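During the second half of the funding period, the structural biology subgroup turned its attention to how the target accommodates small molecules. The most pressing case was oxa(dethia)-CoA, which had performed well in the primary screen but for which no bound structure existed. We therefore specified the complex as follows and requested a full 3D prediction, including the ligand pose.
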Amino acid sequence: MCEAKRVGILGLGAYLPEKVLTNKELERMVDTTDEWITTRTGIKERRIARKDEATSDMAAEAGRRALKAAGLNIEDIDLIIVATITPDMFFPATACLVQDKLGAKRVPAFDVSVACSGFIYGLAIAEQFIRSGTYKHALVIAAEKLSAITDWSDRATCVLFGDGAGAAVLGPVDKGGILSAYLGANGKQGDLIKLPAGGSRIPATKKTIEDRLHFIKMNGSELFRHAVKIMADAALEVTKPLNLKAEDISLVIPHQANIRILNAVAKRMGLTEDKIYLNIERYGNMSAASSAVALVEAVQEGRIKKGDKILLDAFGGGLTWGALVIEW
Ligand code: UT7
């Protein structure tokens, strides 16, 4: 076993479903307005997967694109992690379905279920396996079909979410890579956002369906309050061991839940708003896939240069949170 000193991102890929659902269209579905959604959240439109398109389909396509960008073949991958709260089914794990779809070797494949923090948890887990020398290359995918668990009659939630997938190939690098990781959770606040039924606590019945318990239930304003503090604290915790100040961070790639949350986080961190990467306008909140797709697009748009130190920062249901500093 040979230890890899540094672990970095070798390639990235994203997949967004073609169908765009605009705020204007939502105005015709529930009692809302483009103006309310835009000013309260920053969202203008989101992507919606086809009926026949499941999370593993989007995940596999993002994975293929990340492999291509890394210049690697699927045979090079030793570990597959999929971060999702919208698996194709309870089991098998979506990661196993992706392993099959991509024609990978019989490598370990498992899901991580920590909602919006999933991409960061996945990267941090994979980094440990590679750094220890257990595996050389890992494929970490964050993919969500939130449209499948969204209550399209609830204006408080249905305007927020979207579908999509982002993926990263991790492996040993000579310079830079993941410099620091910070993960956390607080199960006491699990009630703030959840999907109540369908598990072992409240198995599916005709009544649970009638009561609409198979959709996301959320206390938005409480979550908002926690989100700002949690994301700012996570940024502080992950940069502390590196003695980094806010100005040493070139770009923050945050979970995209609400533009007002992100502006408040920037303020708390002492950063100007232009240092926070945003694509919420186009995709809404895609849970784990949000920070993954944001990272892919920030790189594609040339917002990240060699040597830059970037900060990934997310919070979500659980509650869970995670932050990573990566030197590009
Ligand atoms: O991904 C991690 C988990 N999710 C989050 O982090 C979400 C965090 N929370 C938020 O982003 C915000 O709390 C929301 C965008 C969900 C809501 O914004 P808000 O400013 O906290 O609004 P609110 O829930 O306090 O509602 C204000 C008003 C209410 O009306 P009344 O009671 O003041 O008459 C709502 O009924 O806005 C109403 N409202 C809407 N109006 C038009 C709620 N949803 C809508 C809507 N269109 N879609």
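Two results from this model are relevant to the next phase. The pocket of oxa(dethia)-CoA is lined by residues 32, 36-37, 40-41, 116, 155-156, 159, 193, 220-221, 223-224, 227, 257-258, 285, 316 (CB under 6 Å). The chain has a mean pLDDT of 97.
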